[in-house]
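Reagents: none. Just compute today. Glucokinase.
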Amino acid sequence: MSQFQLLVADIGGTNARFGLVELGLGAEQSNPASGFLATRQITLKCAEHTGIAAMAKAYCAQLGINVPKYACLAVAGPIENGQVKMTNLDWSISIEEMRAELDMKSLFVINDFAALAYATPFLKPHELLPLHQGTADPEAVIAVFGPGTGFGMAALVPDNNDWKILPTEGGHCSFAATNEKEQAIRAFAARQFDHVSIEDLISGRGLVTIYKALGDLASQAVEDFTPADVSTRAINNEDALCRDALETFCLMLGSVAGDKALSLGAKGGVFLGGGIIPKIANFINPETFAERFINKRPMSGYLEDIPVSMIINDKAALVGTAAWLVNHTPELHQAYHS
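Predicted 3D structure written out:
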């Protein structure tokens, strides 16, 4: 039996994945050699619940357990002054009120890409897929970003023997088109949005917008596809317009990745994650991605040496939440390293 049971979760705009991490007293699931493993994972639909506390209770009820006393939850949105504002849900939550409602001893809520960033030092080679070769500077910033319901972004800054997380809302920066085709896509999106952000195009809904924009440009009828419809038809080569949309999406991602690497000085490496990356990882062309990533005159040489990897473990954020919780709770830190 473990000494500590930790509740971890990755709560996006659509789904929330919950899991448990066992710690201490011989718990083999989590130790410094093997990293963190969340077991008994269940995915819940956010729309079917009234808030995060309700989902945590529902998860524990399904397992027939009491709500654990320690938790770290990753959420898609900013956290300010102890308040959680979910970006794609109409939820505004007080962390302290939620801790009291769940009767927890320790509750951390962090940005979902902050959790993904914190996971990167613990990920194993089989959980990553190299996209561009380079030499990482171990004392430099690591950038982690990518598309899902929105476009998340965070950075990891070395801090002695630990890391500091820089959560950001970089997905809401303006989208910069790099050619006439992208300018036309941006113009199409601008009919819907006063401000066309990165996540308006590099996200699940953004993929659908690109698909519709390309149909509009070609005077071609489009279907009422979901993001999964577009990507599946593209990957299976079942629809030329869907394939063009996903190829364009991947090229845009390469350009955005280069921009973000420059902005953060990410000589420690770039990691692409989020809900979409594991599904399209084998579709992304490393050569054309690298061309777009590096094409930032006069800084092409700077970018050429930065390694880029895709996080293909879609549960990696749970690793980051567990690591954060352990490293910021003295009794858990002691149990983990004992």
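DSSP finds 13 helices and 14 strands in the chain.
Action item: order primers for follow-up constructs.
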